[in-house]
Amino acid sequence: MKIAERQELKGPSLTIKWALASSFFIFVVFTIFSVITYKSSVRLIVEKERENIERTVAEVANRLSNAKEELTVSEVYERLKAPSVDENDLTNKKVAVEGSLMEMDNMLSELGQPALFLSVYDTNGTLLFETQKEKNVLVKKAKQTAVIKTIDDTTGFLIIQPVFSQENREKIGYIQGFYELSSFYDIRNRLLFILIILEIISLILSSILGFILSSYFLKPLKVLRDTMDTIRKDPQSNIHMPDIHSNDELADLAEIFNEMLDRMRRYIEQQEQFVEDVSHELRTPVAIIEGHLNLLNRWGKEDPEVLEESLQASLQEIIRMKSLVQEMLDLSRAEQVDIQYSNHTSNAKQVVYQVFNNFKILYPDFAITLDDDLPHEEVLGIYRNHFEQLLIIILDNAVKYSTTRKEVHISISKTLNEFEIAIQDFGEGIPEEDLDKIFNRFYRVDKARARNKGGNGLGLSIAKQLVENYKGRIDAESVIHQGTIFRIYIPIIEKNKTKEQDS
Asked: What is the second-level CATH architecture of the domain 28-189?
């Protein structure tokens, strides 16, 4: 059957909520990652640039400190140019000379950077040397560690280093370095732009992926909702939740839902059957009572014999109605024992012997025998009252339908994990074509004789329903004019399970 059209949702679907939640979570995580990456990268680049300007200024100050007197233009150029090498000393100091030349080349390459503005001044602040024709005004005559300053609308690291002579430790000049950070800001802006683009892409991809995954994983819930909506609109529908082969909680949910649905439908059918049976079976006694009352109302009340006959007939029908209603209530309860009595147990030998002794007292003219093949007591998975009711129904039928041979034979035994009880009579017997129908409601083999014996045709239906609801079984064998034997099989509860239930 096709699933009915879904009812409109009152709010966003669970799929949308899941997709939005997963997207938001990924967005927040990626944002935190991007911020940490951005801050760390910027900090590392700034520190690297600071180290470069400080190292360059320190190297220049080290070379200029070899001067003995105050710095002059020629002295500065002499100290900063490539050092001369003595040929007589090349062999003994080859490694040291090569190291000095390489170090000098590295320093000159750093002084030639476009972003570096390095100037050298004497003690009076007069400019002696500059790498570029800009930002060559001495800011102050004091040591200044590398800090970010803005000079002429340009932001960069500013560092001022006084120069002291290594020989007499007197101040001989100043070095001022300014390292422009324009390239750093370009890199920073480019990095920020890339991170923003990546975050937007991740948000879009996470939203799409979250929607796809949520649609896939929540598909069983949508099917369940549609199934429930179909049942709500059409309670008589036979629709079931399709099998889910995911082996997870959703598969368990679908299985449990189907079990509850089957149980609910079974109870509805039982209720409908109960109402139908009551209306059908009570129609006849009600009609009989109504007929007698009409008879009395017309003229019968003036005739004592007619009055007595009508009253007796009406009382008999009322008694039969009470018996019928009680049996139908018993049958209705028997169909629902799996709810109220699923964990109840009873002792097999104890109950059988009790019912056996009661029937011997009730029917002293019957030869009722019991063969006990159980070596010890067994615990059965059935409520004690229902077990007694089951035995009473079968034994009552055995006594009721016995003929001249008034004997009833009972035997109990154990087969694997089942308790078996056989009840045999030697009465009328049941035709073979009727054996499959005797457990149906209100079925009677001989309706006239059954009515005379007071039967309503519900006893065996109640017995069968009780046995099957406790996971047992019942069957019958019969031969006309020789008798009938009923065999009942009830599961035996293991001792360790019995202890767990008792605890």
From this structure: 2-Layer Sandwich (3.30)
